Each structure stands twice: as structure tokens, then as C-alpha cells.
Amino acid sequence: xxxxTADLKQRFPQLQDGDVDVxxxxxxxxxxxxxxxxxxxxxxxxxxDKSDFGSGTSAAPSRLIHGGLKYLETGEFGLVAQSALERxxxxxxxxxxxxxxxTFVPIFSWTRGIWAALRTLTGSTxxxxxxxxxxxxxxxALYDFFGSRNRVMPRHRFLLKRRALKEMPHVTPEIVAGxxxxxxxxxxxxxLVYELVNDGLEANKASLAANSTRLVSxxxxxxxxxRADGYAFSVKPKLVVNAAGPWxxxxxxxLGAPTHLIGGTKGSHILLDHPELVRSLNGHMIYFEADxxxxxxxxxxxxxxLVGSTDIPCDDPDNVRCEEPEIDYFLDSVxxxxxxxxxxxxxxxxxxxxxxxxxxxxxxxxxxISRDHSAPVFEPQTGxxxxxxxxxxxxxxxxxxxxxxxxxxxxxxxxxxxxxSTERLAIGGGRDFPVGANERARWIKSVAAKAGVEASRADxxxxxxxxxxxxxxxxxxxxxxxxxxxGAQRYSALEIDWIARQEMVVHLSDxxxxxxxxxIEGLLTIQGLREIGAIAAAALQWDAQRLxxxxxxxxxxxSKFHGQTLSEESVxxxxxxxxx
Length: 580
Fold this sequence. Notes:
single chain, 10-stranded mixed beta sheet, 37% helix, 19% strand
């Protein structure tokens, strides 16, 4: 099997003028989704990111795939309808990453918030956010209606106080009722972004992808890039798409088209090692109003509890992190909601933050800025013969629909007809995913037998990588699946070798933050990181100095941006006495 990384390295020096039709700058979920869509139509695309695929805003969501219940208040019914449809499609197209999430809404009054909601619906930007039972009941009924296309989940339920407290026993008894509706969560958003890029490369062998690659100059239609290894290359595209998220205005300036499109807000989250809380949630998310009226959420994520999120104006995406006051805010919020449970700073294993690339707005509350998307076009001008399409706003859930809209615009400009839709197209490891218990059991039995592993191991890898697990277990590596990573015993040396050789890894951080979820799970140790680094070094031909730097960069990033200090034992074991 040819290593994907080596294959791409050989192809870049062969680039000639005219080989690339469209350049996409930014490989977050919107850029990756567009790259996949255009490549499927036969368009020769180059997608470039200054860091890794899915490493910016797309790596910092609440990890929800949702229709946007709160957008009903602002009258964005079209956005809710599209989001609910895309949620339903993702449950089918990415079953290895996306799963249903029953959501509990605690209700503290019967009629509060009706007039405020009406003011918001008619355009007010200062209305209070409190919501009573009547308002929530109407909202949930509307939400069911908008989610009826390709429905895959049950309708909502409305519970009076006694029944609500039986379902969620640790919720404050101050509630008067509760509602349960269904959305979805995504376990590995960063990995799904990579899979979208990989799908694009598979669909069109003339398309190219480059991570850790910077735009160094743009003049007279020629874009010059430099890769992390110092190699430079140039292309002359017919059209450029700016999908740089919160960096959009910076990129447009570099292209000679200064703009003021983005007015981003910061969203932070924390992970708690709190087994009692995770058990009490019983697979549910609690979507609640904090004491100050802001919306918060808490749900089980890969064995931990994820708590989020803030919504703070911010314009520095390169240095964004979850600050101490935000952590205090989260802990105070869950203490108020769940007074019978204990919460403290020692339970925090990981934190993360990102900038939402929202449109510039004068709304008094960041929560009222639209999450809808747009794609303004800047026509060619002297010195820049190509148009620029900027992808503004949007949300994780709607990336496929947004990509299809922009792809249609690009196809029209290039006078090419659409060949296929991505609406029913599985993503990455979701392809040929076994549906139903019997089909899953047959898949697991077959793959386990061929690979010589236990059925439980094949099942675990199916959940982690989807059907790509079969290729990983069959990979002709010098490592075996029985060789496990220190501190992260559920991960094997075989997995890491596959990822390093086949998944366009440039840095060690690509493996531990994005191709896997080891970092956010709190499973990294110093020794484990050395083992992962040694496998990557052998695959990518790093010398000892490069390996030491890669390990140091991960340690620094964990400390600076995620509040995690590595030791010889995993963070989760250190944080939880019960786990020792």
C-alpha cells in the first residue's frame, strides 16, 4: 500500500499552470466540505491550511450536531429547517462519528419569557433570555416540525416536575417541569474534517491537499505557498475560496482584497472527570439557562462530562484559550443546576476554546448574532484575475449544505454541470457502515477473524474509525495491534503507524489532537507521547532533534491552550481517585 503522505509529496513538484481550477484557503469543516463536493464534480482543487486539517474553529465546537433550538427565537426558521435536515443526514452518513443525543431542558416557570421572545422575534437585540414552560413547549413542537424531513429520531416529550426529577434526579428541585427532545453529538469532529479531505482526494486524483502550508505571496494571479519542510510551489487558479474562518479578513488582505466580514465570538468548554455525573446523565445532555440567562450544556463525552459554552466577543484566534473566569463560570453553573453533586477544579482534565467566524454585527448580545452563512463574492480586479468567494458564518451541522450551495456557485462560474449530490453520500469510515445489531455483529466477526483480534477489539475500532478499522487491522506494519500505548491502553502502535503513514500527518500534534482523541480524553502521558513520537519518527523520517521538538510542542500546547500538564501517568487517572 502506498503511503498517502509520500504520494502527495511526489505530486506537488509536478504541478503546472492550469493544473488547479480552484484553491480553497482554510481546511476547517466548511473548506473541507467544499473540497469534497467540488472534487466529486471533477473540479481540480487544491486545499491549503496553515496548520492542520480541522485544527482551528472546527476543533473547538460544543461537539453537537443540532438543529439550533434557540434560533427559533430569532425567527431563523430557514436555518433551523436546514440544520435539522443536515443533522438527520449526518446521523446516516457519518454513523461512526455522529449519534443521537436525548436532551433534557429544565424549566423553572410556566409563563416567563413570552413577551421577551416576541420582541426578539420582531428584531429586538436586548430582550432577556428567560424561557418558561409554555414557550419551551411551543419551541419543542416547532423543532419537531422542522426536523420532520428524513426523521430518524423520536419527537419531544414534556414532563411535569415529579417525572422530570425521576429522569434527572440530581437536577435542582426548583424546576417546575422538563422537556426531552433529540439532537445529536459528534465524537470526533477533527477526524471527520480529515475524512472529508481524504474523500475529496479519493474522488479526484488530480486534487491536492496541503496542511502546515502557508500562503507567502499573491501577485498577478500567482499564489505561492511554502510547506513546513520548506518546499515552495505556485499555482494559478481560476477561482479562490477563502474558507479561513476567523482569519478570513487577514487572508483577504493578503490576497489584495481587504474586508471587514468577521465579528467573531469566543466559545470555551471544559472536560470533567466526574463518573457520578456521567452516570446520572444516563446518556442525556442537559441544555439549560445559567443564572445570568446564558445557555449552557453538559453531557457525557468519551467517558467524561463536557461543559460549555461561553459566547464572548474576541478577535485573536491565534491565542484563544479558556480563561480562569470561564472555568469558574462553568463550575458555578453546574453547581447551581445540580446541587447534590460535588464540583471542583481538580475534576477539570482539559479545556479548549475557539473563535466562531460570525459575521460582523452590532447586536448587543453575542448570542443574538446569526449563525446562518453567506458567501460574498469579490470580483477580479487589476493584479488579481481570479474572483474570491469568502465563506462567512455557518455552523458545524450545516457544512454539507453550505458546501453544496457554494459548489453550485463555483460550477456556474466555471460553466460545469453538477455530476452528483453529497446528500446521501457516506463520509470516510461511515461508508458501508453496518446498520443494525445483526449486521454489525457479522461485520465485527468477519474483521476480527481476518485480523486475528478479539471481537471486542474490532468493535472498539469500528466505533473509533468506522469501516476504516478493517484497513487499519490489515495494514502490513512492523507493529502489531497488541502493542499498546502507555497510559492509553485502548490505542495500539499499529493504529499510530497507520495514521502517521496514511493520514497526511506533518506534526505529532496532528496525531494526538486530531486524528485521535487521546489528548481530549486525558489519556496522554509523557512515556506514551514518547512512544507515539517514536512511531511517527520512523514513519516520517524525523531525526532525534526533530522528534524532541515535536514532543515539546505537544507538551507546550497542552499546557498553554488546554490547561493540561503531562506526567508519567494519565491526566484522568491523576484527576480521579476512583480511577486509580
